[in-house]
Design goal:
This protein has 223 residues and is mainly alpha-helical. It contains nine helices and no strands. It starts with a helix and ends with a helix.
Length: 223
């Protein structure tokens, strides 16, 4: 299930968009807000304590900051697709390699902590579904050929399981598990907080989003 769930989450999201044909990503803002709160809470409850346990606190802090900087760097190329924004020209018919590579690096890193933290798979899955839907809306609404869109989604769906597989088989990853986890924590912290900040439209009070965020944090705590 560790390998299967992320793949199914992405592929079924693509099929949903292909069949239902939602025209706008606006309808998925509540799901995005929930996913951001859920992922942030799991990061704080599960990953942070384990990363700091038996490790030099300052070293872990450095890698957390490096993870934040890495995600900021990746977003120069993905234009924020990891948190629900795709600002790439939909009129282009060429394969969006920059978007694909940046999203793949992000998804690949997500897979590393799954093996030692079973619950984080649910945070990643719930994060992937709205993002995969929004990316699928962009791909199918662009002038990209359908076969290329399917190729993009299939390869993207494999990146997180690939990260998990390497994490279980590589002695190097096991040796440097704490700093690698800290790097992923930085990525998660950036992604989840940006989602939460952007989910508050114009910083106006929205009771539904507040309740969704509280639900995400509460469910993560109970896992």
């Amino acid at each position: 299930m560790t390998y299967l769930l992320p793949i199914l989450g992405v592929l079924l999201s693509f099929v949903f968009v292909l069949v239902v044909k939602p025209e706008s990503k606006e309808n998925f803002k509540l799901l995005l807000a929930f996913s951001g709160a859920f992922l942030l809470a799991l990061t704080v409850f599960e990953l942070l304590p384990s990363a700091y346990e038996n490790s030099n606190a300052k070293t872990i802090g450095i890698f957390v900051m490096l993870g934040i900087l890495l995600q900021i760097f990746l977003e120069f190329f993905s234009k924020g697709a990891e948190h629900g924004h795709v600002h790439i020209d939909s009129e282009k018919s060429s394969f969006p390699w920059l978007l694909f590579v940046s999203l793949s690096i992000h998804a690949f890193l997500e897979g590393f902590p799954i093996e030692q933290h079973d619950t984080i798979i649910y945070g990643i899955l719930i994060h992937k579904i709205p993002i995969a839907i929004i990316i699928s809306i962009f791909l199918l609404g662009s002038k990209l050929k359908l076969v290329n869109a399917i190729f993009f989604i299939i390869l993207f769906s494999l990146m997180t399981p690939l990260g998990s597989f390497i994490a279980t088989k590589s002695i190097w990853v096991a040796e440097f598990y704490a700093p690698i986890t800290a790097l992923v924590i930085g990525v998660f912290l950036h992604i989840s907080t940006v989602i939460l900040f952007e989910s508050s439209e114009g910083h106006k009070f929205n009771l539904r989003k507040l309740l969704v965020i509280i639900a995400g944090i509460s469910i993560a705590y109970m896992l």
